[in-house]
């Protein structure tokens, strides 16, 4: 079981590298993906107390470095996008592999993927753009093997910015998908 | 992790609940030679003080069009209230082309107030119109708007739109219900809250007879379309699909609602028959199709699509389903609304990435685009029912405010708010 998880993680990582390679041509045209701010580690998402026990069990086959990497991946719950784009950055894909594993290990766990846009452009178009970004995350998780019924996509368009400013930095923070 | 039980607190305030922050118009650009007009303070032949100054409301209305320059009452040589008291030379001397006089009386045993007014052409020394309107004291602003409409039409030949309303969305994070849908007089007066809640509100729009509104609310946890009767406040959720449900627009006959839904995977245009609630799919394309709007005769829809990689305006004939691209200039053309002539449309336009978004008019016959606005992040244009002005949303610093621009671009004014963000204005149809 542990080996199996480790194997899946490895395969997912290889697949992520493969995807990154496939998209390298578009990545070249994009600006450097922005540094994702380090998020506070998420609260335990499962209501049941068994969550901790499972987590401890999983660490058995992982080296401390791999555990740190997994925890860092799971701590990333906000993913950022370029203007008018919905491509996932390499960092986002890496973090999502860990989220996918967690979802597959916890079939009762559900993610609400909230897509957002910056305020440039019209509101209805941005509502559609926010949905497309959340769908990009949803599709990536599904490709990793996550069941569709564990995922829900919502778009808020430009209606809920985290930063009300009108600078490029503020816009970059607002173009995001949040795991809720 | 999924917020199954999102705490949603929502409330409908009984009409007419007054919102506290009134919007006030500030002219930023007028025409070169506005028409000088004398509006004499109306005489009040009753007890007590009236809540609204009829002459003041008329004066502000006409000034705010940018096409009139009302004369300061302090400079008037005389203050007549009816034709017998008018000496035209007094007004010629002040350089006034037109003169409006009037008086307000209350009948002895009635709550009704009567407003009598007369309007003169000073140069021709001629009485152009005159009438007596009665109503309750709370209707004084309505009467003032009706007189403004008469005066405006007499001088410009264009029907006035002062007795109309605007809908808009406000957001103020300090309130317990940060998102509000408000309705006010076209001059920003008498704001009322039509709906408020803890979740975002989008895309308010009017039925063609002005009795109903439709809008998008996130109160159920995702965007759904609601319809609400203005006078009764009764509201109904029209859609309950997954994905995006948004961008409602009533058909010219009021029986159908064009809208967007991504219930089948990505946003496409649909039409809902409001009598049967039947949903008809209009577009079926893997790219984003959104922001539908009706042609004046109801035979086609225009909409925004990014099927050519960036947002452009397309038109679909509802009978043949023939789809045609309408915009070619610029890399962002969105949220178009057709003028009644069917040949011009108002839209959000950006030429290229380094340009601002601006409210523009596209002439379909000639293919020319005229840029009307150069404020910041201009969006959500809504055309006045007399097609004289376009009201739209923009930003000043971090604040969302409303602006208006005349359809010829000559007159511009701002409608600042006291607090919070104001956005997505929707100008009502004529309401009589």
Description:
The complex is a heterodimer of chains A (180) and B (432). Chain A has 180 residues and is of the alpha+beta class. Chain A has helices at 2-22, 24-29, 50-58, 64-75, 90-105, 123-143, 168-174, and strands at 78-80, 111-116, 151-157, 176-179. A four-stranded mixed beta sheet of chain A has the order 1-4-2-3. In chain A, helix 4 (64-75) packs across helix 5 (90-105). Chain A starts with a helix and ends with a strand. Mean pLDDT of chain A is 79; it is low at 15-57. Chain B starts with 9 loop residues before the first strand and ends in a 5-residue tail after the last strand. Chain B folds into two domains: 31-156, 3-Layer(aba) Sandwich (Rossmann fold), CATH 3.40.50.10070; 165-427, Neuraminidase. Chain B contains three helices and 32 strands. With 432 residues, chain B is mainly β. The interface between A and B is medium-sized, with 31 and 39 residues.
CATH homologous superfamily assignment of the domain at 60-179 in chain A: OmpA-like domain
Strand order of the largest sheet of chain A: 1-4-2-3
CATH topology (fold) name of the domain at 60-179 in chain A:
60s Ribosomal Protein L30, Chain: A
CATH-derived architecture of the largest domain in chain B: 6 Propeller
Helix content of chain B: under 10%
Mean model confidence by pLDDT of chain A: 79
Structural class of chain B: mainly beta
Tell me the overall shape of chain B: globular
Supply the CATH superfamily name of the largest domain in chain B. TolB, C-terminal domain
Number of helices of chain B: 3
**Separation of the first and last Cα atoms of chain A:** 28 Å
What share of the residues of chain A does DSSP label as strand, in percent? 5-15%
Number of strands of chain A: 4
Structural class of chain A: alpha+beta
What Rg of chain B, in angstroms, do the CA atoms define? Answer: 23 Å
